Amino acid sequence: MEHTYCVIMAGGKGERFWPLSTDRVPKPFVKLIGDKTMIQMTVERVLRLVPKERVFLVLGREHVEVARAQLTDLPEGQFIAEPAGRDTAPCIGFAATILYRRDPAATMIVLPADQYIPDEDAFVRTASAGVEWAMRGDYLVTIGITPTRPDTGYGYIRAGESMHADGGPCFRVDRFVEKPDEATAFRYLAEGGYYWNSGIFIWRARVVLKGIEAHMPPLWDGLEAIGRAEAAGDAIGVADRFKGLQRISIDYGLMEKADNVLMVKADFAWDDVGSWGALRRVMKLDASGNYLRGNPVCVDTKDCVIFGEGVRVGAVGVSDLIIVASGEGVLVCTLARDQDARRVARMMERGETGA
Amino acid sequence: MEHTYCVIMAGGKGERFWPLSTDRVPKPFVKLIGDKTMIQMTVERVLRLVPKERVFLVLGREHVEVARAQLTDLPEGQFIAEPAGRDTAPCIGFAATILYRRDPAATMIVLPADQYIPDEDAFVRTASAGVEWAMRGDYLVTIGITPTRPDTGYGYIRAGESMHADGGPCFRVDRFVEKPDEATAFRYLAEGGYYWNSGIFIWRARVVLKGIEAHMPPLWDGLEAIGRAEAAGDAIGVADRFKGLQRISIDYGLMEKADNVLMVKADFAWDDVGSWGALRRVMKLDASGNYLRGNPVCVDTKDCVIFGEGVRVGAVGVSDLIIVASGEGVLVCTLARDQDARRVARMMERGETGA
Questions:
Q1: Is-contact A168 A162, C-beta < 8 A?
Q2: pLDDT-based confidence at A55, cuts 50/70/90?
Q3: Which domains does chain A have, with CATH numbers?
């Protein structure tokens, strides 16, 4: 695998996990789980696959400093600063051109910086299988997660025919489906053959660039212009052209359209930890059903998520609540409304108080 | 009323209103209501009755500094530091000896520093009536509040025969009763003739000292010893003897035993604001039933008490909660459990986290 690279995407705003995360320090750089930040855990995981010289980060300029401070082992040149956040297609295209220039035989494992995958061995097995398929042909390989509940927060992949004679983990992809409503999600689970779209992709740099050329000509043209500006040493030109790219996801722009897409079925537990409530799903809870951080004082408190690192937090008689205190502020939100917690951060930004 | 003095008792710990109050800055010194602290409001109220030269404060040594900072108009000699907190009987006895020495004709209005009495005019009327009775004979006058609910958090006074021929506000006191259970409190309301014990007392210094001599000989002896130590300039002797006094309330030690007790029925709204929940009772709430301080961001939040001065607080989907954030920490407590909020402060003091 000496031509295999990992590209970790660490974008995102700080809204979902305010007041622990902020725009300055978004989710990948926060300790939601254990003593390491999400990105530290992600890097640790991929170091099981490739040496540190082949681990690249793509992230906003404004986060390079915090990333370097958290990942002191990674060589400096491997922090790729995006001039602007333009969703995953420009991000991946940009990284692919950089890697292709460096190593035309490069195979990329592209993965988000903030997912929870506790079983590293299983991750290595699945990702290695993906790399194998990506090198075997001109495939765009995606990792599919066997759904454990009718989640409406994820996109789904419908698997097509198996690539194996004997029931192996790789399938052709029948189609990608956007986040379904609850009834549809239930049906997917009942029918079987549907998988969660993990956002982890494996392909040769050459192959993904060919896909972008075929299915996303404006992005292709933009990447070429960026390449020319880079070659000319025109940093402002690079930034301007990047900012001019259309905001679009790789799923929508490429994966849904390409016909060379494969899915490798993951055999690991996976969660994108998209909300405070997700922490109760993935973490070991105490006897009262709480996930507590920072030694809060709890009296008759159950089924809560409480973060109070550096702040003394006391809870009395409450249940099904998210309570998060940091130097930034305090959030109190019902578990049922955890998707709306981000509204608080947005309203604060705009100076609203609401009602 | 040139021999009338106000003695404001500002004792107490900071537990009930943690994290807004602390042992260093207990409830009287906190802005629970409006832009003034409880003690500032209390002083303002009594200045309607007596000039500032006759307003005395009895408080713990450790709170003298914060009290002076909040009450810059009061002459320095009127801050009486108790060497130790020994409940209301020693506090009142100590103040009475000081006032009696200064003015043998002194009449004292003794009142807690942290009660909510919005109608100052009515307070002045009732207190003036009390002063009149205290000067008319050797009476121990107490202020009784007409109960508006079967509260189990207050002591009750059962009024006896009227002192008036024509239905005035002053009664002999039949008996004092400790905090009742709920059924008993309901019965008191149904029967009528029961009043809440406000903890506001009016008497001549000479009369209360005579009462202490008759009904609380150990306290009387202690006060005499303290007087001798003071006369000898022995500050350590004063402190030691004060610390040796028995911890006992004036209600239990004197009022329940004396036969010269009168009650003047108050014609003002009154609340001792004994808990976070009490704030919802006395304050004007917003359209969602919230009492909000410090501009918290609220999404679908109702019937809550939220304090976030100096801390950004966001609330989503919650109801019937107390949320208080300060530089000291964060409390989240159901309204129903507001009496248990103090347990959090105690547990933190002891380094416990609970469950």
A1: yes
A2: very high
A3: 4-265 (3.90.550.10), 276-350 (no CATH)
Three-state DSSP class for residue B5: strand
- Peptide bond preceding B28: is omega within 30 degrees of 0, i.e. cis? no
Q: The whole model's pTM is what?
A: 0.91
CA end-to-end span of chain A: 56
User: Under an 8 Å CB criterion, which residues of B touch A?
Assistant: 18-19, 286-288, 295-300, 308, 311-318, 321, 323, 325, 328-334, 336-337, 340-341, 343-345, 347-348, 352-355
3 state DSSP class of A121? helix
Angle at B208 between CA B202 and CA B214, to 5 degrees: 145
Mean pLDDT of A256-260: 95
C-alpha triplet B178, B182, B186: angle, nearest 5°? 95
Q: Which pLDDT score is estimated for A309?
A: 81
Cα distances (Å, whole numbers) of residue A353 to A331, A346, B308, B313:
13, 10, 12, 10
In terms of Cα–Cα distance, which of B321, B175, B322 is closest to B256?
B175
Query: What average pLDDT does the segment A114-122 reach?
Result: 96
Q: State whether B312 and A329 contact (CB < 8 Å).
A: yes
B306 Cβ contact list (under 8 Å, min separation 6): B290, B291, B292, B293, B294, B296, B298, B313, B315, B321, B322, B323, B324
From the list A309, A305, A348, A343, the residue with the least C-alpha distance to A326 is: A309
Which single residue is written with the structure tokens 């304050």? B283
d(CA B318, CA A320): 10
CA distances from residue B318 to A16, A279, B348 in whole angstroms, order as listed: 18, 20, 25
Interface contact flag, B343 A295, Cβ < 8 Å: no
- Chain A CB contacts of B324 under 8 Å are none
Closest A-chain CA to B340: A316
For A346, name the nearest residue in chain B, comparing CA atoms only.
Answer: B297
Q: Which residues pair with A195 in a beta bridge?
A: A157
Q: Token pair for residue A157?
A: 């992949």
Residue B268's region, left for phi above 0, alpha for psi from -120 to 50, else beta, is beta
Instruction: For residue B320, give the DSSP letter.
Output: S
Average per-residue pLDDT for chain B: 95
List the one residue out of A307, A333, A329, A339 whose CA is nearest residue A320.
Answer: A333
Q: What is the mean pLDDT of residues A43-56?
A: 97
Peptide bond into B112 cis (omega under 30): no
